[in-house]
Amino acid sequence: MLNAIVGYHKDELDDWVAELVCGHNQHVRHNPPWTSRPWVISAQGRESMLGHKLYCKKCETGEPKDW
Model pTM? Predict the structure, then answer.
């Protein structure tokens, strides 16, 4: 299921986490060559991705909301 990004926060390891409209959280790491998300590095980049939809596996499996 695709859900829009509505905000961000950092976890205990200082990694960025996207907050999705469905109430679930998803890490959005920039970790090349495995994951390329250079937009997560800057505040402007993160802001530009608000509203962008990410696949939410937690919705597919029926997990409770994170927030």
Answer: 0.91
Query: Is 67 part of a structural domain of the chain?
Result: no
Instruction: Give one DSSP letter per residue of the chain, joined into a string.
Output: -EEEEEEEEE-TTS-EEEEETTS-EEE---BTTTB--GGGGSHHHHHHTTT-EEE-HHHHTTPPP--
On whether residue 54 sits in a domain, the answer given is yes
Tens of pLDDT, residue by residue, the chain (67 residues): 999 999 999 999 999 999 999 999 999 999 888 889 999 999 999 999 999 999 999 999 999 999 8
The whole-angstrom distance between residue 3's C-alpha and the CA centroid of its chain comes to: 10
